[in-house]
């Protein structure tokens, strides 16, 4: 027998895609054995890793061949050492290759070179297979010996390790070889994977490494002021789950590129022509938002075939004001060229009815066609196809469009002639600021748009005003090195709140980080984000009273689990990596365990590199609300932060500081919006979407969570989901301080897998 490891729920067809799985190769879904190297589970979206030893029955030169659907690789060592593995045969590298069962000659790569083996030795092998959701899944290896050409012979295979008594978390025996690992993609500022700008190096990523300017030194820079935002819904009688309607997004500067441009083929909510986001007439999906595609089709397809088999002219209205102001007058296209007459010859076709007299094309129709070419429809205006009934009115409408039925019939049998193209045609274009068109309503329904962007002029004005106040107290002591991050919580009735994250250069040459909330009171010229600061008008900056974040607050990550060994181990490893990277000791991992049988979680925590942890074993069926509350009850410091967490999350290095910055005791809780990855996607190749309505991850001070009653353990027992929205309702309703609200900013580079 040989060891068989199964990795389920993973899309893709290539072995490279399997190696990107975070759990590969140590934490498979299933570990079992097989009696021969020919496997067909009849399943979808999985990967297999089969390994063990081959015992040749005789000395000789052996050939190995592999067949599979989809890709596969057969590796064989020169001896029993896994470190000496070599790739001997394979089916494909791109994921597009596959074979039928037993088809060993489809690709040259399927058959190995002659390999000398000796009877008294054993040789470590590894067979890797990837299958998607199509085709007949199978993988098999055939062996022949050169002494008997063409004869398929048997060799003995045996397991490397008996895993029958091991738990899922026991992985020390699993070989980690060159066949099972892939070089990890590195983040690059020049060429991010798949063109995902969000993965470019960003100063926000390493800002936690810059020493923090002591808040004491900032006292007196700005005056204190009462902060009572107008969006507070204190005491408002919310219906169940109505709190979602009171969530508002924040604005950020500079651009963090959380807009998922690489996913906009599926969801183009940035563009106003998308029918889902505008209550307009139906949009002709063939054209989409691409003007080049439109003009090409317009030139080549002046006529279209309707589903009833006739040809009819498209009706198009509107202009292109959103992208093109006007066509330059000196480069107008010439009059449409009419196709020449061609004789019709259908010797084998059905007998034609006598033709009616052709109706001539009206001159004004030619002018109208020129107008369509010169002024194609805008992104805002839909392109329509006129609906025609089955009755006799169709013919009249047909003729009224300027065509006769017979004339149009001829066009289908003629060669297609393009209108003359004016290659020197130019146009004028206005800058297109799509961010100015965005709103909470759109973004909370659009799952690829990312953070709202703060206008640069507004951001610079705020920073300039603050630095002026700072230099008034400390003349020539600080200079602005870099604007790392600015977040705006708009309140156009009373004034907006800003989070400033600035890198300063002290006169001594030391770099310091400044992270502070400020409040800008509304004035007549600063009441709207559309208005700019009037000439000579000084912004009224102040410190929102008692609105301070604690940079040393302990953050408790609470996770309830049951039989999730591979994800628990992944979470522990991720938190260890955060600790190694940041050196931050002020966080605690709390795991409440519903009698997991696949790993000893307490032992894993004890052997980990974590600075703090707590473990609580619970009994009974898994209940998320009860498990979270049990973890909350372990916390004795009311002035520490509770972060209600989940498995399947990948955190960026500075995430703990991000939680601290966005939790203010008595004032603000933090619900990051994470990216849910599609099947087969990874944090470095992030195909997916923003989970804009998910509130399962929540950071809040222990004192504030206790004041609203903690988790609802009475209603949410045996049912899953909804407990996060219910907690949101109570958080917004509880008190005027807590209703200052959820921090709805999208937390870049946080992924839900």
From TrEMBL:
Report the top EC class in one word: transferase
This chain's function reads: Transfers N-acetylgalactosamine (GalNAc) from UDP-GalNAc to N-acetylglucosamine-beta-benzyl with a beta-1,4-linkage to form N,N'-diacetyllactosediamine, GalNAc-beta-1,4-GlcNAc structures in N-linked glycans and probably O-linked glycans.
What is the phylogenetic placement of the source species in the record?
Eukaryota, Metazoa, Chordata, Craniata, Vertebrata
What PANTHER family does its record include?
A: BETA-1,4-N-ACETYLGALACTOSAMINYLTRANSFERASE 3, CHONDROITIN SYNTHASE
Tell me where in or outside the cell this protein is found: Golgi apparatus, Golgi stack membrane
Spell out the protein name for this chain: Beta-1,4-N-acetylgalactosaminyltransferase
Q: Quickly give the catalysed reaction.
A: an N-acetyl-beta-D-glucosaminyl derivative + UDP-N-acetyl-alpha-D-galactosamine = an N-acetyl-beta-D-galactosaminyl-(1->4)-N-acetyl-beta-D-glucosaminyl derivative + UDP + H(+)
List GO molecular-function terms, semicolon-separated: N-acetyl-beta-glucosaminyl-derivative 4-beta-N-acetylgalactosaminyltransferase activity
Query: EC number(s)?
Result: 2.4.1.244
Alphabetic keyword roster: Golgi apparatus, Membrane, Signal-anchor, Transferase, Transmembrane, Transmembrane helix
- Main localization (coarse): Golgi
Q: Which family does it belong to?
A: Belongs to the chondroitin N-acetylgalactosaminyltransferase family.
Task: Give the region (Disordered) as residue ranges.
Answer: 307-381
Q: Which InterPro entries match?
A: Chond_GalNAc (IPR008428), CS_glycosyltransferase (IPR051227), Nucleotide-diphossugar_trans (IPR029044), PA14/GLEYA (IPR037524), PA14_dom (IPR011658)
A single GO CC term for this protein reads: Golgi cisterna membrane
Extent of Polar residues compositional bias: 369-378
For bias type Basic residues, the affected ranges are: 353-362
């Amino acid at each position: 027998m040989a060891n068989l490891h199964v990795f389920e729920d993973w899309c893709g067809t290539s072995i490279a895609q399997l190696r990107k799985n975070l759990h590969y190769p140590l934490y498979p879904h299933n570990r079992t054995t097989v009696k021969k190297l020919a496997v067909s589970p009849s399943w979808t979206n999985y990967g297999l890793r089969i390994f063990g030893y081959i015992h040749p029955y005789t000395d000789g030169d052996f050939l190995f061949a592999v067949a599979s659907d989809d890709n596969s690789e057969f590796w064989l060592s020169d001896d029993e050492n896994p470190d000496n593995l070599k790739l001997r045969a394979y089916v494909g590298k791109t994921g597009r290759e596959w074979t039928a069962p037993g088809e060993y000659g489809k690709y040259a790569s399927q058959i190995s070179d002659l390999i000398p083996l000796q009877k008294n030795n054993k040789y470590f092998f590894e067979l890797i297979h990837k299958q998607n959701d199509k085709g007949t899944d199978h993988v098999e290896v055939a062996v022949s010996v050169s002494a008997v050409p063409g004869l398929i012979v048997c060799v003995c295979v045996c397991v490397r390790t008996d895993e029958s008594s091991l738990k899922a978390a026991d992985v020390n025996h699993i070989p980690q070889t060159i066949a099972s690992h892939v070089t990890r993609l590195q983040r690059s500022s020049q060429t991010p994977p798949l063109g995902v700008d969000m993965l470019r190096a960003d100063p926000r990523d390493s800002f936690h490494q810059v020493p923090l300017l002591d808040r004491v030194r900032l006292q007196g820079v700005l005056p204190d002021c009462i902060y009572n935002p107008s969006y507070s819904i204190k005491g408002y009688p919310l219906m169940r789950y109505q709190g979602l309607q009171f969530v508002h997004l924040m604005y950020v500067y500079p651009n963090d590129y959380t807009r998922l441009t690489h996913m906009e083929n599926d969801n183009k909510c940035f563009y106003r022509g998308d029918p889902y986001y505008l209550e307009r007439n139906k949009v002709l999906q063939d054209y989409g938002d691409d003007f080049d595609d439109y003009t090409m089709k317009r030139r080549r397809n002046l006529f279209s075939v309707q589903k009833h088999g006739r040809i009819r002219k498209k009706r198009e209205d509107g202009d292109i004001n959103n992208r093109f102001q006007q066509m330059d007058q000196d480069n107008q296209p010439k009059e449409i060229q009419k196709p020449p007459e061609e004789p019709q010859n259908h010797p084998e076709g059905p007998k034609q009815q006598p033709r009616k007299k052709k109706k001539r094309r009206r001159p004004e129709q030619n002018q109208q066609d020129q107008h369509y070419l010169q002024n194609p429809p805008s992104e805002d205006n839909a392109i329509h196809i006129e609906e025609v009934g089955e009755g006799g009115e169709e013919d009249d409408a047909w003729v009224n469009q300027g065509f006769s039925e017979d004339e149009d019939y001829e066009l289908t049998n003629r060669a297609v002639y393009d209108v003359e193209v004016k290659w020197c045609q130019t146009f004028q274009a206005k800058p297109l600021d799509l961010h100015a068109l965005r709103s909470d309503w759109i973004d909370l329904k659009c799952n690829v748009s990312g953070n709202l962007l703060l206008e640069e002029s507004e951001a610079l004005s705020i920073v300039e005003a603050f630095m002026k106040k700072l230099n008034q107290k400390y003349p020539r002591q600080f200079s602005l090195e870099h604007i790392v991050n600015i977040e705006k919580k708009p309140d156009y009735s009373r004034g907006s709140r800003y989070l400033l994250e600035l890198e300063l250069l002290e006169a001594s040459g030391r770099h310091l980080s400044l992270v502070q909330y400020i409040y800008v009171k509304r004035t007549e010229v600063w009441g709207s984000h559309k208005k700019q600061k009037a000439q000579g008008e000084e912004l009224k900056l102040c410190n929102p009273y008692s609105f301070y974040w604690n940079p040393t607050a302990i953050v408790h990550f609470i996770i309830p689990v049951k039989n999730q060994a591979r994800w628990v181990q992944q979470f522990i490893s991720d938190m260890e990596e955060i600790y190694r990277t940041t050196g931050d000791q002020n966080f605690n991992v709390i795991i409440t365990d519903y009698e997991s049988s696949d790993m000893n979680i307490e032992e894993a925590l004890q052997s980990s590199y974590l600075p703090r942890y707590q473990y609580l074993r619970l009994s009974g069926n898994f209940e998320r609300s009860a498990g979270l509350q049990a973890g909350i009850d372990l916390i004795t410091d009311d002035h520490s932060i509770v972060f209600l967490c989940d498995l399947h999350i990948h955190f960026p290095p500075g995430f703990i500081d991000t939680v601290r910055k966005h939790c203010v005791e008595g004032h603000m809780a933090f619900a990051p919006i994470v990216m849910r990855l599609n099947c087969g996607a990874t944090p470095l190749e992030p195909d997916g979407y923003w989970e804009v309505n998910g509130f399962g991850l929540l950071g809040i001070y222990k004192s504030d969570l206790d004041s609203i009653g903690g988790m609802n353990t009475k209603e949410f027992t045996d049912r899953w989901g909804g407990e996060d929205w219910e907690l949101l309702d109570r958080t917004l309703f509880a008190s005027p301080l807590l209703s200052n609200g959820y921090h709805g900013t999208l937390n870049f580079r946080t992924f839900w897998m």
